[in-house]
Amino acid sequence: MEKIEYFDLKKCIILFDNYKLHKVASNADGSVRFRCQTCKSISVTVDKTDLICRKPDASSRHLGQCKKYFTIETICLKNYEEIKHDARTEPSFSFSKSYGEGLQQLQEQYDLQLVAQYYPKEPTARVTCSKNKNQEKDLQIQLIQEDFYQKRTEFSIYFTNLTHRITHPYEQDLDDVDQYKDTEEEEEMEKIIEQTISKIKLAKLKNSYKNFDFIDNFRERLKSQENGVIQTQVVYDQENNSMVSNRCSKRKGTQEEKESIKPKTKTGTLSIEIKQEKQSPPTTSTSFDNSRIYTADERIQVEPFNFALSDDQWLMGRHIDLAFDYIQSHSRNSFLFIANNWKCEELIRNNFLIHESPEMDKIFVVNVNNLHWIILTNINPSESENNQSLEQNWFVYDNQNFHRVHMVQSEHQISSNDCGLFAIAYAQLLAERLDPFNYKFDQRLMRITYNSFITFGFLYDFYFEIIAEKQKQIFPFNVSCGEKKQIEIAKLLGVSPKCVSSTEKRYEETCSGSDRSRPGRRRKLNFRDERLGIGANEDEDIEKVDPVLNALNIDRSKTVKRQRRIKSSNSGDNTSKKVLDMIVVEFTDDAARLKALRDARTLRGTEHKDAYINPDKTASERALERELRKRRNELNGKFPLNQVRIDSEGRHRYGIKPD
DNA sequence: CGTAAGATAACAGGCATTGG
DNA sequence: CCAATGCCTGTTATCTTACG
After folding, report:
1. What's the DSSP call for residue A553?
2. Are A234 and A192 in contact (CB under 8 A)?
3. Who contacts A541 (Cβ-Cβ below 8 Å, separation ≥6)?
4. Which residues fall in a compositionally biased region of kind Basic and acidic residues (predicted)?
5. What Å value separates CA A234 and C1' B19?
6. Using the CA of A123, which nucleotide's C1' is the nearest one?
7. Share of chain A above pLDDT 70, in %
8. Per the CATH hierarchy, to which homologous superfamily does domain A317-466 belong?
9. So what's the pLDDT on residue A438?
10. What does the pLDDT read at residue A179?
11. Treating both helix axes as pointing N-terminal to C-terminal, what angle do A486-493 and A497-510 enclose, rounded to 10 degrees?
12. Which residues of A519-529 are buried (b: 16+ CB within 10 A; e: fewer)?
C-alpha cells in the first residue's frame, strides 16, 4: 500500500508511474477509480485515505501515445499549481513575484534548461493566474447574485400580492377575527362614522358596539357641540362626493386598542365626544381644517397629527390620501380613477375587481408591508390618451425597487422616507398622462412642495428635471436578443462561454451561412513603399500613404481609422539590416479595406509600382508564411532547372498555400 | 503588466455496454 | 459488484491577440 500523489488540489488527477490518471467514478465503498485519460486501459483504485488499493497487473501497458511526465516536468507543474492556487486564495497575490521566485528556485536546484523548457511560459501563466484571481471575485459576485435570485419575486406573485393587498388589506389585521360578515349588517351605517375612525370599525368587528346606536348618538353629540362653544365642521369633497379622510391609518396598534375598548363595553356607558386637536401650522383655510378627531370613547387615545411634514417624516396614508384627492379633483382627465388608501378599502367592501372597466385610467396607491408606498396603474404614458384599449397592462412605479421587481425603471430615491412623496408625484404625472420615467425629482423640494400644499391648499407640480436621453427600461419581460457577446449569451442560457463557442462551431460546420463576426485585425492593411525610407514622424508617414490612397480612389477622412508604423519583431538577431518600413493602416469598414486590397495590383503600372499592400498579419501568421516560403523554395529547388514551370507571371510550380 | 475576449485541445463526468 | 471501454455533452485550461 502506498500513498498516492495528487497532481491537482481538487483531487481529480493523480500521478501514477509518472502518468497522469484522471478520476472516473466512485465505487460503492467510497474508493475512487482513476484511469489514464488517453488510452483508458490503465486504471487505479484509491481508497478514502489516499492509499492505492488496486494497481493494474504487471502485464498492463499504456496503449497509444500516453504522455509520461519527467520528474523535472512534474516538479515544475506542481510549482505552477501552487502559484495558481495562491492566485486564487491570496488576496495580495503578485504574479510577477511568485512566478519569478518559483522559476528562480527551481533553476537553482535543477537543470536550468529543463526547467526553462517545462516551466509554464510567462504569458500563459500570467493570464491563467489573472483568471484565477478573478474567479475569486466572480465567486463573490455569484454569491450575491444567487442571494438575489433566491429572494427575487416572480412578477406574477408580486402582482398577485399587490392586487391581493388592494382587495384584502385587512386580512393581516383580521387573522384572528373572522367575523367579516358582521360588517354587512351594519353597512347602512353612515359613511361619516365608518370613515371617521377606523377604530370604530375594528370595534364593530369585535361586535362590541353591535347594539349601540351610533348614528343617533353621534348626531346628538354633534348637535350639542354645534350649539356649544366648539364649532365643528365636516368637510366634503364635492368632486368625489366623499369626505376627506382624516382617519388615523395606524394599524399596528389595533391589539392594544381592542384591549382598551373591552372593559368599557362591559360597563355599557358609552359616549361619543368630539375632541379638537390644535392644528399645526395654524391655518385659516377651512377646507383643510380637517384634523378634528371624533372618537367614540374618550379613553381611546388619539394620536395627534398634522399634515405638515418634518424633515424625514415617513408619509402616512392620510398624507397621500389628501394629495390624491386633490389630484383627482383637479385632473382634466375625465376617465381618471385615482384610488387612495381609503378608497381602495372602500372598493374592497364593494367587492371591486381591479380588472373591471378597463377603459378607465386607474391609479392605485399600494402600501407594501406597512413600509413602502408604490403606485400601481394601468396607464401607459407612451400610449395616446385616446387609445383606450380594452386590454389592460399594469405598471408598477416603485422608486425604491423594494421588491426587486420593477417594471418601469424610475429614478432612485436617496433616503427611504420619501417613497410616499414619490407615489404622489408619480400619480400626479400619470394623471396628466406624463411618463414619470422621464422625470427626476428633487427630494428636498418635494417636502417643501407638500408642506405648501398643506398650508395653502394648492398642490404645485413637484419640482423635476426632465431626463431626455434615458433609455426606457421595463423589466423583466423584454429580454432583447440582439448582438450579444459570447459571455452574455452564455449567462442568458446558463451555460459556459465555451458551450456557446462550441455550439456556434458545430452550427457553422453543419449549416453554412453563419456570418459570425471574428475578432482580430481584419480591417488593417500593411503599406510598404520601397521607394521611400523610414518616415521621420507621423506626418511624413501620412504624406507617404496619401498619394497611394488617392491613386486607389480612397478617401482618407471617411475610411481610414488610423495608421501607425510597425517595427520588426525579430530585431534581436539582425538589427542593422532588418529595418521594416511598413505602415499599418486601419480602415473603418471592410469594404474600403477590400477595395484597397483588390485594387492594389493596379498600382503596379503606375508611379506607385513600388508600393505593396498586403493584409496585416499576426506574428504567428507571418511565421507560418515564412515557413511556407521556405518549404516552397525547397520544393521548387528540388526540380531540375529545366523542369521548373515558370508561367508568365514568374510563379513557380509550388506556390504558397496554407492548409 | 493587467485585463478582455475568442479559439481550441484536453479534460470531466455521466451513461451505456460488455465481460468476469 | 467491479473493471474496461466507448460515447456524448459540456467544462477547463491554455493559447493567441489586442488594448490601455
Report:
1. T
2. yes
3. A535, A563, A565, A583
4. 253-262
5. 96
6. C15
7. 17
8. Adenoviral Proteinase; Chain A (3.40.395.10)
9. 64
10. 35
11. 100
12. eeeebbbbbeb
Q: What integer is the mean pLDDT of A195-201?
A: 41
Report the pLDDT averaged over residues A430-438.
68
Helix ranges, A68-153 (H)? 71-89, 95-109, 112-118, 122-151
By C-alpha to C1' distance, B2 is nearest to: A130
Q: Which chain B positions come under 7 Å from a protein C-beta?
A: 1-15
Instruction: Examine domains A317-466 and A524-616 and report if their fold is the same.
Output: no
A42 CA – B14 C1', rounded, Å: 20
- Whether A229 sits with its Cβ under 7 A from any strand C atom: the answer reads no
What letters, b where the CB count within 10 A reaches 16 and e where it falls short, cover A336-373? bebbbbbbbbbbbeeebebeeeeebbbbbbbbbeeebb
User: Does A517 or A380 have the greater pLDDT score?
Assistant: A380
Contact, A210 vs A182, CB < 8 A?
yes
Distance CA A197, CA A205 (A): 13
Residue bearing the bigger pLDDT, A502 or A272: A502
Global pTM value: 0.31
> What are the percentages of helix, strand and coil residues in chain A, rounded to 5?
40, 15, 45
CATH topology for the A524-616 domain: Alpha-Beta Plaits (3.30.70)
Question: Which of A462, A456, A581, A459 has the alpha carbon at shortest distance from A530?
Answer: A581
Contact between A75 and A106 under an 8 Å Cβ cutoff? The reply is: yes
Cβ-Cβ contacts under 8 Å for A231 (sequence gap 6 or more): A225
- Cell reading at A287: 377646507
Kindly list the domain boundaries of chain A, sorted by start residue.
Answer: 5-128, 186-295, 317-466, 524-616
Which residues numbered 53-72 in chain A sit less than 7 A from strand C, measured from CB? 54, 56, 60
